[in-house]
User: Fold this.
Amino acid sequence: MRFRPCIDLHGGIVKQIVGATLSDTSNDQLETNYQSQRSSVWFANRYRQDHLTGGHVIQLGPGNADAAQAALSAWPGGLQVGGGIHADNAGQWLDAGASHVIVTSWVFNEGRIHMARLEKLVKKIGKSRLVLDLSCRRRGDAYLIATNRWQTFTDEAVTYTLMDRLSHYCDEFLIHAVDVEGRCAGIETDLVAYLGGWQGIPVTYAGGISGQADIDQIEALGKGRIDFTVGSALDIFGGKGMRYADLARRYA
Assistant:
């Protein structure tokens, strides 16, 4: 179980945002928990200093490419990058220093999985450089994968069958529990428990972590197999729930 740090970019600025308020069309409903005065490079250098690998640089919409590239240059091979990635630009991001590219919307498109797109992507960059983002929102008893900055529901639910199938094409899964993302009000326990019952490639969970008790719960429900990301609760993102230095020391 490892701590995976993050650099969430919106308009070229490092921010922590309530995930469910993101929109393709307007920022009127956007809820921002934190907007940093520090650059993406500062965070990348900090993670590099603390030997934290496998962190995520997430581009939340347009206008983030320069800040993302700067972070990757500061910690080459130490960070993954997501947001607007497809078969034609994935190689460029790897060349820019990303260890992996993170993909959702290009593969989960028009409500379903486009296997031809996924196969094209893997053919170009290889399974070992790809992370599939299965970020999801609850509908009834199912967690449906959401795309386009988590606003568009697909017909695909996070299930063992789906994870088994897709694990042949990627190195890891990243799963945000979108409905609690950025709210610091507790994790999606049902989702974490379900993920903890699957034994396959690495899985990173994000969403709702407010303090150490939530991390302990992830460790218990996930049987120690699930990595985690913390955003808004961290002191380096203006949070009061936990100290980044403690996590870096304990879960590197």
